[in-house]
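User: Modeling request: complex.
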Amino acid sequence: MDDSPILVVKALEAGVADEDIDILKGVDLAIRPGEIHAVMGPNGSGKSTLAKVIAGHPEYEVTGGSVGLRGEDLLEMEPDERAQAGVFMAFQYPVEIPGVSIANFLRTALQSRLEDGEELDLFDFQELLMERMELLDMDVAFAQRPVNDGFSGGEKKRNEILQMAVLKPALAVMDETDSGLDIDALQVVARGVNTLRDEDPEMSVLLITHYQRILNHIVPDRVHVMVDGRIVESGGPEVALELEAQGYEEYRKAHAA
Amino acid sequence: MTQTAVMREDVRRAIGRTAVLEEGAADPGWLNARREEAWDIYEATPLPSTRSEEWRYTDVARLLPLDELEPAAGGPARVAALPEGLRRAMAQDRESAGRIVDVDGRVVSVELDEALAAQGVVLSSLREAARAGMPEVESLLATEAVPASDGKFAALNAALWSDGVFLYVPRGVRVDRTIRLSRWISRPGTATFTRILIVAEELSRLSFVDEILSPDFSSATLVNTAVELFSRGGAQVQYVSLQRMGEGGVYLANQRTLAERDSTLDTLNVALGGSVGRVDLNARLLGPGANSDMLGLYFGDSNQHFDFNTSQDHVAPNAHSDLLYKGALDGAARGIFRGIIRVHDGAQGTDAYQTNRNLILSDEAISTSLPNLEIEADDVRCSHGATVGQLDAEALFYLMSRGLRREQAERLVVLGFLGEVLSKLPLGGVVEKVTQAIEAKLRYV
Ligand SMILES: Nc1ncnc2c1ncn2[C@@H]1O[C@H](COP(=O)(O)OP(=O)(O)O)[C@@H](O)[C@H]1O
Ligand SMILES: [Mg+2]
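Assistant: Request completed. Predicted assembly structure:
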């Protein structure tokens, strides 16, 4: 097995494009194939910004450093090219697309991964979709609903995991997928992620969370703590437990200035 | 413009008198009299000017070289083979209860389910129905719904119409499958006048799809349609217009729906083709419990110009109307929506809504939206709203982050936006056909 990292983030600095707001102030991160890294930190510390910069959100501008995916410059790629290269971000706030069904959306997403002139086998697609919905305890009718339109918070999060399970990324960035989920829903999400990793042991996960709770179900190799745009501590799963016991306030104080 | 001599004198004679009289010594006297009366009204009515509110954004004098058009007296009654474009559109349709095919303003074939015919359903060339002495044709043609007095084009149509459709569904008869009109215009520089008269008697049911197609034309080619829809007590009627003409097509339609007590009279106007499309739709709620859902969908690109002028006339109390028109505009396309809800004195308990939403896909496209209310009764629930927006950047990013190329993402968002309209009137085959037509158009955007 090639042990070189799939994702390398180096001294990454980023802010809001067209505005003088610095958010990420030098982030370093390396994730090897098959690893699960958790990023924890208080609200506003820059976790979502890190996720969106990796996914290529046009609102953010990288002002320093680099992001590489398997040695390729990710920052040079359009969002769709990043997805084609294996990046998937589960949104903290999934977007509503009125009138576009989940099935149609996912079919188009899979079709877009094929060579020009190649047609997606619709039967295979249906089978995959059904199987994934079953894995995530979803009703078959769900696939016909318009993407996130009128969904509850929990349904939106589940829909993110469904998309991930259908698209099978090499690197999944999950931005607070656990927030707002009850314990049953959380276990369903964890089952989804763990099943994908069983199928593809090389799948890597960057799991952004506010709470230690999800890490009981998706066990991380590394835990990073982000405060004010920087990673201030990295370690094993025990870091998450400490953080939970101590609270973010302490952390913020300890790492202020 | 001096006088109103917008049509050549010889042409006027040819179509207005000679052709009509000659061809149909067979036409009843009342019809010829009605045509002549309409012609007089036409001559006495000025061409709509952009100085009037209703025509402010559509300059017919500029868009339509009326003097130069050749009125189509109707093509041959039989055609050896239907045009390829028309056949393709027809092949897409699901099974129907009946179909009329009209080429260049002349009905060339009529088919109707035999069981329905035996129940008294009439589907016929309008001209033939008039000749056959159908009483509803004489009493309702260009009288209550779209009379010549309605305006310049209503008068012109009432004078010059060459053919059209008469559909009659007797009391209590339910036509479950759609009845279709498939129209084709082949000759550039012509003016075709068509009428559709539909009468749904009490407690009957029908759905009718009026589709018009043509090739691209190098010069302006006019189609003017007068649509008269009557739903009697408790009847259920759906009328769908699919305007898919080629470049150069100028489509002017006068549609009026008259909904009586407890009846439903729903309409859907889809405008995808032609260079200019102007639809005047007046829905009249004439009896308590009447209901009209009024849907519209338009997608313009290049220099296409779509103008919708709608009115919801609540004459009776306790009736309901709900309008939703959605449009996407690309290129240098122009979309105009002007709508009014009129709640007449005595129409208490009215429920009337009006929504127009527009999606602008380019810097040059323009959308104008003018919703309006006029309320003369108490205890009514009315609302109107209009929006003009651009593609949501957040939505595009979301879709692209799943691997869709920008064009694919835009396509899905536009389809989803317009698709809401179709989902409200899920008529067999219409949704698929319109979706495919939009997709085909999006491919060139
Ligand atoms: N588009 C934006 N415009 C202005 N400020 C922003 C924008 N996005 C993020 N920020 C700011 O950057 C900081 C980090 O935000 P975010 O990355 O969402 O944090 P987290 O996900 O850790 O809660 C916050 O102070 C937030 O207000
Ligand atoms: Mg966040």
